[in-house]
Design a protein that fits this description.
With 171 residues, the protein is an alpha+beta fold. It is built from six helices and eight strands.
Amino acid sequence: MKTFEQANKGAADMLARVVADYHPGLDEVDVEFLFHKDEKANGEAVRMRVAGYATPGVVKILGPVDRALGHGDVRIIVCKTAWDDMEQPEQRALLDHLLTRVERVGESGDLDEYDRPKLQKRRADFRLEGFREVAERHGEHAVEVRALERFANSPQLWLPGLDVVEPKAAA
């Protein structure tokens, strides 16, 4: 059964610190922070899914109806099972990732009709997906392989914590 609960004080405090440390432009944004829990009938935990894929968390910019009803500006929902499996640095990174999806629209002081900050959802800088079997069948011609090559060969690519191994020259 799926249930939602407000994030505990420790998690809410961590969110506030992540906003202060990395997202000062969102300091006036009212963020609702919830945990998602789901269990099978036998009590086994089920991870949160979006479009069929497990995800540790999602963010939604709330619309005018929610704002008029007194809800926040943004709702973050984190999979409680995933959260509990993470160390604190991973939890901070997840919250930073989710908050990075939210950006102010216009000048920093621009407000909407409810006197709340104007917001929009930011697209990720990169996204990779594909099918192994298509890559195996079509090799370098597969959309999946071409996208991965563009990503790997991007001059802007630098991901801290990812050790990049130089490919060996063909013999």
